[in-house]
Amino acid sequence: MFSSGLKQGLRRIQGSVHRLLTADRLLRRCPPHLLVLGFHRVTEGADPYEETPPGLTCSANSLRAILEWIKDRYELISEDCVEEILSGRRDTSAALVTFDDAFEDFRVVSFPILRERDAPAVLFVPSSTEPLWQNRLWRAARYFSGKSVEFLGRKWRLDRERFLRKFLSECRRYIAEPPVRRERNKRLDEVVGLLEGGERSREGAARLGGKSLRRLAAAGVTMGGHSRTHPVLKGLKEEELREEVAGSREELEGMVGRRIEAFAYPFGDRNSYDEKVVEGVEKAGYRRAYTTVPEVLPIGEDVARARWEIPRLCVDWDENLERWLARKWVPAMKRIEGDR
C-alpha cells in the first residue's frame, strides 16, 4: 500500500512527464522558428522582491532547468547569427538567450551557468549610470510602512501583492507620460515622496560597471543597447529619443570597445514603442531590435520584416521550467503550429 503522500508525489511526476512529452510532440509539429528567451535578474536563493519589481527576477535553478531543456531541443546561437535568419541564409530552428538591465548578478550567477553549458548570451545594457527609475519606485513602495496611500484622486491599498501591482502599473503610466525627462523625474520624486521615505536606497540592485562589462564582452558576451535611462520611448520628443537610442549606442561602444548592433526596447510591449521609435533605432545604426511580445519568430519568406520587432519569451520570478512552458512557450508555439 502506498501512502497518500507518495501517491500524490507519483501523480505529480506522471503529470510532469506527460506535460514535457506533450511539449515535445508540439515542437515536432511546428515549423522552423527562432526562440528568444528573456531574463532580467537571476538570484541564488535571494528574496525575488528585495531589489526589483515582481516579474523581473527568476531563480538560478529555473535558469539551469530552462537552459538544459532548450539546449536538448534547439541550437543555441549567438546574436550575430540572428542576421543569418533575417537574411534568409538559415532555415532551421534556433534559440537565443538574452538578459536585460545588466544587473550585477549576471556576472555572479548567470554567466557561470551559461559558461558551464556553452550558451551564448546577449546583455542589453542601459548605458547611463543613473539608478533605474522603476527600481527606485519599487523599493519605495516595498518598504512603505503604511497600508494605503492617496494617489491621483483615489486611495490605493499597498498591503497585498495584487494591490501593489496595480498601484505600480498606474505609477508607471503616470511617470512615463511626460515627453521631457525633467518632468518625468519630477513625477517620480512626487510619487516617492508620497511613500513617506520608505525608499532605503536610491540605487537598488547593483548594476554592472564599465570594467565588468568589458571583461564580459571579452569573454564572449554580446552587448546590446537598451536606451540610456530606461524610459518608455514612445512619445519622447525627437531630441530626447535620439539621446536615449543613439546616445546609448555611442556610450556603450565607448565603454566596451565593440560595435553594438542589437537593441532592446525598454519594457518592450507594443505600448512602449511605435514607428517613430523604430525609425529612431534604425537611424542610430542598430541592425536588429527586440521586444518583449511573447511570441516566437517563424522562419520563412516574411522573416526580414521582423528585424525591428523580434519577439521574446521572458521568464518571470515564479516560473520554473513547467510553468514557463505552460504560460509562455506552449501558447506561442500553438500560434505558429498551423504554419507548416
Features:
340 residues; TIM Barrel; 13 strands; alpha/beta; 11 helices; two-stranded parallel ribbon
Overall mean pLDDT: 87
What is the class of the largest domain in the CATH system? Answer: Alpha Beta
Radius of gyration from CA coordinates: 21 Å
How many structurally independent domains? 2
Based on secondary structure, the structural category is: alpha/beta
Pattern of helices and strands: HEEEHEHEHEHEEHHHEHEHEEEH
- What's the CATH H-level homologous superfamily of the largest domain? Glycoside hydrolase/deacetylase
What report would you give on this structure?
The N and C termini lie far apart (48 Å). The chain is an alpha/beta fold and 340 residues long. The strands form 4 sheets. Strands 1, 4, 5, 6, 9, 12 and 13 form a 7-stranded mixed sheet that branches. Strand 5, helix 4 and strand 6 form a beta-alpha-beta unit. The model is unreliable at 199-203 (pLDDT under 50). The protein folds into 2 domains: 31-131 and 203-339, Glycoside hydrolase/deacetylase (TIM Barrel); 133-194, no CATH class. The protein is globular and about 55 Å long. Helix content is 44%, strand content 14%. The chain is built from 11 helices and 13 strands.
